[in-house]
Each structure stands twice: as structure tokens, then as C-alpha cells.
Design brief:
- The complex is a heterodimer of chains A (309) and B (360).
- Chain A has a single domain, classed as ABC transporter involved in vitamin B12 uptake, BtuC (Orthogonal Bundle), CATH 1.10.3470.
- Helix content of chain A is 70%, strand content 0%.
- Chain A has 13 helices and no strands.
- The relative contact order of chain A is 0.21.
- Chain B is an all-alpha fold and 360 residues long.
- Chain B has a domain of 233 residues.
- In chain B, helix 3 crosses helix 11 and helix 4 packs antiparallel against helix 5.
- The chains are: A mainly alpha (309), B mainly alpha (360).
- Chain A: It comes from Jannaschia seosinensis.
- Chain A: Keywords: Cell membrane, Membrane, Transmembrane, Transmembrane helix.
- Chain A: Its main location: membrane.
Chain lengths: 309, 360
Amino acid sequence: MDLSSISLTLLIASLMVAATPILLAAIGEMVVERAGVLNLGVEGMMITGAICGFVAGVETGSPWAGFLVAAIGGAAMAALFGFLTQYLLSNQVATGLALTLFGLGLSSLLGQGYVGIKAQTLRRVDLGPLSDLPVVGRIIFGHDPIVYLSLALVAGVWAFLRYSRAGLILRAVGESHDAAHALGYHVRRVRMLAVLFGGACAGLGGAYLSLVRVPQWTEGMTAGAGWIALAIVVFASWRAERVLIGAYLFGGITVLQLNLQTAGARLPVELLSAAPYLVTIVVLVLISGRAGGRANAPADLGKPFHASA
Amino acid sequence: MIRLVRRPAPSRFWAALSPLLAVALTMAVGAAMFAALGSDPLVALRTIFWEPIFGEFAWYFRGQLLVKAAPLILIAVGLAMGFRAGVWNIGAEGQYIIGAICGAAAGLALYPAETRLIFPLMVAAGALGGFLWAMIPAFLKVRFGTNEILVSLMLVYVAENLLASAAVSWLRNPESVGFPGSRNLSRWASSANPELFANTGVHWGVVAALIAVILGHVMLTRHLMGFHIRLAGSAPRAARFAGMVPGRMVVFCLGIAGVLAGMAGLFEVTGPAGQISIDFGSGYGFTAIIVAFLGRLNPLGIVAAGLLMALTYVGGDNAASNLGLPVAAISAFQGMLLFFLLAVDVLTNFRIQIGRGAVA
């Protein structure tokens, strides 16, 4: 095995690219869960975003149109989930699963005839001399715009939840919908908006996979990324800055195992491919073993709200 | 203005009717989807839902129906216990794959012995494999409080990687040149899971599914464990006063689902699938989730739901070969069915009031 072929600079740069889809989905889901809704359909919304974005990207030739359509597609799926859980009061766990199963089927249906095509991908931002700086240039100044957008989203969500009045209302709805309702806030409206935001973020994350990271369409290409995003929200104990850490740690593991595979590590390929999932399990165990691991969860997470109750 | 008013008790009428309503709605929207895909919706619906049962080639399709329904029913009965008790095992696909691998490995270790004892041994090994795989999330849940949804799902991806490595290296047929995949288990008399009656599709998996349904039904309605499962789902606090131990419930529900899913995998690999191959995992573990809900988490309902879902598979294949309808349309159709079911379920617990009611 030749470890010297792995460059640390490139490793960090590609880690950020690998982490971006999960980061986008996770930050969206975190907002949803802070509003007290558990949407297990992240995988379904991501894959819908991946195919919507890819189709739009191919048809228009513009990756930006792809990302826009992906966000709309993800939000549309989320709207379905929101309508069922918020207005028809269906079980959130079951509805989230339904969203994932439906999204996987729908995406492979929409993707007929798009397998094996290449789409126009995003160009890296060129900041001239800054991008040419050694090490820092590649890591900080050499990415495509969506990487920066994802970082801006994390910062935005962090500030929104911490400093804005609307963020306070959203957290109140998540902690106690009855109290929030009694204060006159529109619980369902707040939750619907959060769910739509989460769907749009998941859609963007999916499109990042099909338009930038891979960039191609294959059936079931998200391969559990949406579920890992859910795990990262738990890992982050529902805090924006920790979502960033979690996603980048995870991206690091993904990139490292890919690099080990190409460097010819004497480990079975299957074990390396399974590593991200095994690591996720280990992390989940460590988090839940910690004292008060779930104490940070929004108090009304996953509970249905009906005004008459 | 339309308002929802909570019923004092769930309506039995709507609980029974809502799956039928959901199926009807899914067919209507599905017809629109087929029309959008460019085939005559009525012809498509007839090809999927009518021809396999009453058409010209029904003698072939009816057998296929049982072949597809058996694993779905077997897995769904196990899942339903957990879903009732609030234990969310969504990794049945992984337990199914591991069951097949363990069972096949146990059999292949004895190749080429000729004895009738090998098949029962393989069934036991498959059940044990599924059980142990399900015990991972169960143990982590009980010991550390780790979320079983995420762990059981992550283990599906781990199982798929294990399957790939089994197919290309340690269970690969040593006599095949260059091809991945194990020896053909359905062609080795000691391990074969053949059709028991010609042209009926009945193999040992169908028999096992039938037994599981009966035992599941008896347990839920007549046994203390069944009572605890039902109680744990509807009133967890009351269940604890009734002497239920939550940890034991998690272990039991995941364990039974693992055993049944593992057995389903074993019957599949020794019969219809024939060998361990990279694409052995066929999504039965996920479709079974839909079957469990469509069957109202009730073993008898699951039989009907499993047959209906098998019909969409068989009819979908029929439509794919005769009408050129994409196979993916069927999985979208199945997902839609669960959506509609969850949506119309609101009628079970709520009454719709139109017009102005008293403000609550």
C-alpha cells in the first residue's frame, strides 16, 4: 500500500465536496426537527432532488436551473409529507418511510432514459491569485459555489435560530406546541414552512450528488446519504455548528476509504465500502451512551399536533 | 370550513374500509400515471390486476403470485409485531440478506453430501443469521438507547456489502470460471426448495408464511405477549404497570422479525433465486413495510396485503413485457399506495365536519 499517494490538501478539499450533500440535507432536517417534526423521508427527498436536478440540468444545459428545480422537487415531496402529517395527522415515522419508498420509485421512473448521460457540471469559483495560494488556496478558495452556499446556510440557520424572533418561535413550536398554540402562534404553518425548507435543502443535496459529485444519474445513487444525514442531526444534538462538524467528519471518512481503496490497501473493498455505515452506527452508539444524550432533542419531536387535544 | 373532530374511539368501519379506499385511490392516480407514460390506462390496469389472475396465462401467473407473496408475508408478519409495539425495525432487507448468506453458507459447507437433513439445517442457520443481525440494533437499543431505526437501516448497507463479498469471494462457486455467484442451491437435491405441488408455486416458504400468519394471529389475540405488544403501542405507561419490560419487548419484536426475515431469505435463495449473487437483495424487506401497514398490522390482513402487493410485482412484470411500461412505475405505484393508506387513515381517528362548528 502506498500511503504517500494520498495528498492531505486534496484529501481535505475532496472531503468538503463529499460532505456537502449530507451537510445540506442535515442542516435542513435539523430545522425540521427543531420545529418538532421528524421527517424520515430525507432519503426520498434527496433522490427526488437528484433526478429533478439532473433532468433539468441536462434539458436546459444550466446546472443552476438544475439546482433550482431540485430544490422545488425536494420541497414538493416535503409538502406531501407535511400535508399528511400536519393536516391529516398521519404517523410521522410511517409517512417518512413512505416518502422514502415513493421517492426511490418515482426517481427511477423519472430517470428512465437519463442513465449514462453527462450533465453540465458547476465550475469552481476562480478567485485568481487567491485560488493559486499553496494549500489554503485549494482548500478555502477553490470550490464550486454550492459548497460556499452550504456553509452560508449553516451560518444562516445558526444565526436564525439563535438571534431572530422567527427562530425563537420555531424553537418554541418544537419544544411545546401546546404552549406555542396558546400564545397564538400558528403551529401548523410554522411546521409546514420548516418542512418545506428541509425538503428544499435535501433536494439541493441530492442535486449536488447527481450534478457535481458523481456527476451522473444512477438509480438509488443516494445510497443511504439521507439516512446518514438523519444520524448526523442526532450526532449534532440539534445544533447547527455541530451539524457542520458531523458532516465534515463523515465526509472525511468517505474520502479516506475511497483513497485507501485506490491506494490498494490490503483490506477487502467491501469492508471499506461498508465503513461509512459502520462508523455511523458506532457514532450513534457513542452519542446515545453519553449522559443525557437525548436531552437536547426538541421536547415535542415527532408528536402530532391537533388544536382540539 | 372543513374541520377534523377527534372520534371518541377509532372507527371500526373506517379501519376496515380505509385500505380498500386507499387501493382504489392508488389505482385511479396510477391510471393517470400510466396514461402520462403513454399507455392506455385501462389496458394497463387490466394487464396488472386482471390478467395475472383470470387471463390466458393465469396458470403461470398464479404460481408466481404465491412465490412473490410468501417472503413479503413472512417478513411483514414479523415487522407488524414491532410496529404495533413502537419498535421500528426498518432493516428487514438486511436481515433477509444475512439469513440467505448464513443458510447458504451452512449448506455449502456440507457440499456435496446427499442427505435430507441439510435443508432443515439451512433453514435453522438462516433463521439464526437473521436473528443475530436483528439483535445488533436490539442490543444497542436496550443497552445504550441507540435509535433502532437508523441502526437497522445502516445495517442493510453493511449486509449488501457482505453479500457482494460473499458472491465474489468466499461463497463463490469454485467450479465457475470468472462468474460471481455461489453454487446453484436449487439444483442440489439436499438444499433445494422445490415446488411442492406442480404449477402452484407452493414451496416451503409459502408453508412457513402460512404457519407464521396463524401463530402470529394466535399470539396477538390469545397470548399475554400479544396483549403486551398491543398495549405497548397504545399505552406504554400502562404496559409497564401490566408487567411488561420495555427492553424485553424490543428484543422480542426485533428477534421475531429477524428470524422470519432470515427464513424468507433462505427460502428465496434455495428456491426462486437459486444462488447467492450480487443482486440477490430484491427490496422485499422494504416492500414488506408497505405490506405490514396495508394489512393493518394484523396477520390476517397481511395475507391479503401480501397477495395484492405480489400482484403488483407479477402484473408489473407482465405490463413491462407486454406494454413496455417501465418496471420502476410499479415501485412508484407501491410507494403511492402507502401514502394514500396513511392519508385515508385520518378517517379512522377523526370525523370530518363541514361548516362552522363550535370553536374548541
